[in-house]
Amino acid sequence: SREFFEKEWEGMWTKVWLLLGRESELPEPGDWQMEPVGPEEILMVRQADGGVKAFYNVCQHRGNPLVEESKGHVKRFVCKYHSWAFMPDGELNFAPDREDFPEGNPCGKVRLQELACETFAGFVWVNMDPDCMPLKQFLGPIWEEWEAREVGTWTRTTANTMWLPCNWKVVLDNFNESYHVPTVHMGATTSTDRTKISSNINTYFKETRFDLSDEGHNRMVMEGGYGTGSTDKEGNILEPLASQLRYWALDPADFKDNPEATRGALQKAKQQLGPERGFSHYAKVPDQHLTDAFHYTLFPNFAVSLWSDGFHFLRARPHRSDPEQCLFDNWWYTSPAAMASGHEGGMGAGPEEVEVTMLDFDKGDSIGPAIEDDVRVFVTQQRGFRSRGFKGVYLAKQETRIRRYHELIDDYIAGRLPG
């Protein structure tokens, strides 16, 4: 509802740290990015001292936005309405007819409205609350885990974005559980054995670890799975697992009829060979990080699956006025060593990040393999929420993260902030 949308905006969105820009896209002083979040547009600018500042994208004269594009470079931000010019640090540098203002020359008095801004893991984070806690405190245990991964050096190799006809929380609810995976992604039937390790991860809830942090973030750890679907009828290891084994000096034939043994073997081989092949972060993380999926949901609107050399970036942002629309990002980042070798999801290409591709849901564009399955459910679920026949959720224990997630939103609206 619009009523809840407004409460949510004032009580929660304006009080939390939001992951927005990417530091690598702001290499030089004067480089900027602009990203929308609900009714606001946030401008992030690289400073002469190497830091990054964030401002609301609005001229302080008559409220006109300073930029319309998503990124660029400036010596000054010049408003297209009356040519007021602001320096990259937010200072008003020029105003036409400055002697005509009864309150005196606005230069030296007026600045762009600044937000709290910090950088971490290669991203730019902002908070609209002037009294907010430091980002490190907000992230809690996430900080050290991501720091060890060196994800700040990783490169974006896929970037698909589209507006979806659903509320942003529908997206995050989905990524707060794996209960849907056998049905939505694997064509499950009543005879599906949910205890079988399938594909590259084991999503069976009894063998999955679920962690909730006091700060409101959560983590789901799924073991690397190389069982069902990893061999042919004769028990021979299939692709892409076979090539992965060979890259790490392991013979696929040694694991015939025993694909589950590849998990431990890959961990050992990666620890031994990784550093000399440029995978420097391998020495800083536990063995489990080298084969398993660590799926995080960072409150309020960001989910990411972290693998040994790639992370799946899933972000939903609210529409400026319609609670039944959201902006959804489906991006992928790859480690430098994987980029250079073309291995572990790398592209074998240079370090340049791909540009964002804006797709159109109404035209039938696909946002990406597998995730398009989720998107179909997002849209139908939004329709179902509108039925007077839907009386509320009935959650399994493995969906506890969803319950906690909505409790935290309610806490923020009520003024009960964590920490």
Describe this structure in words.
- This protein has about 425 residues and is α+β, with helices and mostly antiparallel strands.
- It has helices at about 1-10, 135-140, 140-150, 170-175, 180-185, 240-245, 260-275, 335-340, 370-385, 400-415, and strands spanning about 20, 30-35, 40-45, 50-55, 70-75, 75-80, 85, 90-95, 115-120, 125, 155-165, 210, 220, 295-300, 300-305, 310-320, 325-335, 355-360.
- A hairpin with a 5-residue loop joins strand 12 (about 210) and strand 13.
- The mean pLDDT is about 90.
- Helix 1 (about 1-10) crosses helix 10.
- The strands form 3 sheets. An 8-stranded mixed sheet has the order 12-13-14-15-16-17-11-18.
- The radius of gyration is 24 Å and the shape is globular.
What can be said about this structure in brief?
The protein is α+β, with helices and mostly antiparallel strands and 419 residues long. 21% of the residues lie in helices and 23% in strands.
Question: What tags apply to this protein structure?
Answer:
419 residues; alpha+beta; eight-stranded mixed beta sheet; seven-stranded antiparallel beta sheet; globular
- Encode the helix/strand succession as letters: HEEEEEEEEEEHHEHHEEHHEEEEHEHH
* Intertermini distance: 29 Å
Q: Trace the largest sheet across and list its strands.
A: 12-13-14-15-16-17-11-18
**Biggest beta sheet attributes:** 8 strands, mixed
Number of helices: 10
